[in-house]
Write a structure and sequence with these properties.
heterodimer, A: alpha/beta, Transcription Regulator spoIIAA, 6 strands, about 45% helix, B: alpha+beta, Heat Shock Protein 90, globular
């Protein structure tokens, strides 16, 4: 499990999560994800396109961050690439209609700061 | 196969303790067992996710009685004339919890009003072709599975 981030200018933070967002995987990165998403940036892009597994606990962590970003007036979006398993999990829980999903980085970055 | 004899057993069982790490062990066990039985990859992925969510529910709702004995998982793969079928049974001694009786998930309209809980059951429903529940002998017995057409 790994989580990393890159700041792109003053307004955008990109967070990349790799590995399995299952029960133990989510427990190991949830606090760091919350801290990274809490940065005073207008837009937050979370790249989940290379996740091997996305369970409800992981979706809950993403949802919690997206709410926090929205509450401070920002916007969080997801990069899902062509990861059909991740897309299925987000669609089944209805989260795909709450946190915008994009296949490509550039689309996601534009949407996050729009 | 070994010397023309199929050595893969039709039924496989696993006992785990109630913890997140043990859920991960169960996921790996199920994935390996399904692949050994030539279950197609889409069904392997769905069943792995469904099992994860079922076990996460046991951890969340089982309370202290859950720790009285291991959680037992049984996998059975059957080949019929035109379809294959994988059936996963989960038995636990936790508090009564019937995932089949929960109301259907209603997606929130906005991020602000979206609850943080209740995301596991929609995943179980999406990933299973059927599911059933009974409470017997002080234990929850939950069964779910998937079918696929044989080529």
């Amino acid at each position: 499990m790994s989580i990393s981030h890159t700041d792109i200018g003053d307004n955008l933070r990109k967070i990349v999560i790799l590995g399995r967002l299952d029960h133990p995987g989510t427990e190991s990165v949830a606090n760091e994800l919350e801290k990274l998403a809490a940065a005073p940036k207008k837009g937050v892009v979370v790249d989940v396109s290379s996740l091997k597994f996305l369970a409800s606990l992981g979706i809950r962590a993403l949802l919690k961050c997206a709410k926090a970003v929205e509450e401070r007036g920002g916007r969080m979006v997801l990069v899902v690439g062509t990861n059909s398993q991740v897309v299925m999990s987000l669609e089944a829980t209805g989260v795909s209609s709450l946190i915008p999903m994009f296949k490509r980085d550039d689309e996601a970055e534009r949407a996050a700061v729009a | 196969m070994h010397n023309g004899i199929n050595t893969v057993r039709p039924v496989e069982t696993l006992a785990i303790a109630a913890s997140g790490e043990e859920i991960r062990r169960a996921s790996a066990w199920l994935t390996t067992a399904l692949r050994q039985r030539d279950v197609p990859n889409p069904q392997v992925e769905r069943l792995e996710l469904a099992l994860h969510e079922v076990l996460a529910n046991v951890l969340a709702h089982g309370g202290n009685p859950m720790r009285a004995e291991p959680i037992r998982i049984c996998l059975e793969v059957r080949a019929k004339a035109t379809t294959g079928e994988a059936r996963v049974k989960v038995r636990d001694a936790g508090m009564p919890f019937d995932p089949t009786g929960a109301p259907a998930h209603t997606p929130a309209r906005t991020l602000a009003e979206a609850p943080l809980g209740g995301l596991g059951l929609p995943l179980i429903r999406r990933c299973s072709d059927w599911m059933s529940y009974r409470r017997e002998g002080g234990r929850n017995h939950f069964v779910f599975g998937a079918r696929w057409p044989k080529l």
